[in-house]
Amino acid sequence: MRLTSPYTLMGVIVAGITLVILFSSNPKPVYCAQAFAQREQAVVMFGTSWCRYCGKARQYFDENKIAYCEYDIEASDESGASYRALGGDGVPLILVGETRIIGFNESSLHYALRQRHLMP
């Protein structure tokens, strides 16, 4: 019998906790692409309206036709609470499945999206 790697198990746990936090606190998204609900692997961004790196992430998602859901951490208490519960330490905080990316790093984001088959 093959045991699951501790890293895989930790990833599954983090993903589960993330989804519970996001959907139990019920924050209102600022933006969700129509195709977002049809994806198995969710892309979620926590950001602010004034953050230029959040703007770069939005542009990247739009240019690459990536369905995502965005929560403004300053627009509602629930979004801010979800962000803090995830250990938010900067914006944007992007979740691609169980992968967390803090800040906008195009190569990290591209890699995470390709790993989840959300990008060619």
Describe the structure.
Helix content is 42%, strand content 16%. The chain has one domain: Glutaredoxin (3-Layer(aba) Sandwich). The protein starts with 5 loop residues before the first helix and ends in a 5-residue tail after the last helix. It is built from four helices and five strands. Strand 2, helix 2 and strand 3 form a beta-alpha-beta unit. It has a five-stranded mixed beta sheet, sandwiched between helices.
What labels would you give this structure?
120 residues; single chain; alpha+beta; 5 strands
Structural class, from secondary structure content? alpha+beta
**SSE arrangement, N to C:** HEEHEHEEH
**Mean model confidence by pLDDT:** 80
Strand order of the largest sheet: 1-3-2-4-5
Give the beta-strand count: 5
Taken as a percent bin, the fraction of beta residues is 15-25%
Number of helices: 4
Helix content: 40-55%
Number of domains: 1
What's the name of the CATH homologous superfamily? Glutaredoxin
Shape: globular
| Radius of gyration over all CA atoms, rounded | 14 Å
Q: Tell me the name of the CATH class.
A: Alpha Beta
Q: Which fold name fills CATH's third level, the topology?
A: Glutaredoxin
Q: Spans with pLDDT under 50 lasting ≥5 residues?
A: none
- End-to-end distance, in Å? 34 Å
Largest sheet: 5 strands, mixed
CATH architecture: 3-Layer(aba) Sandwich
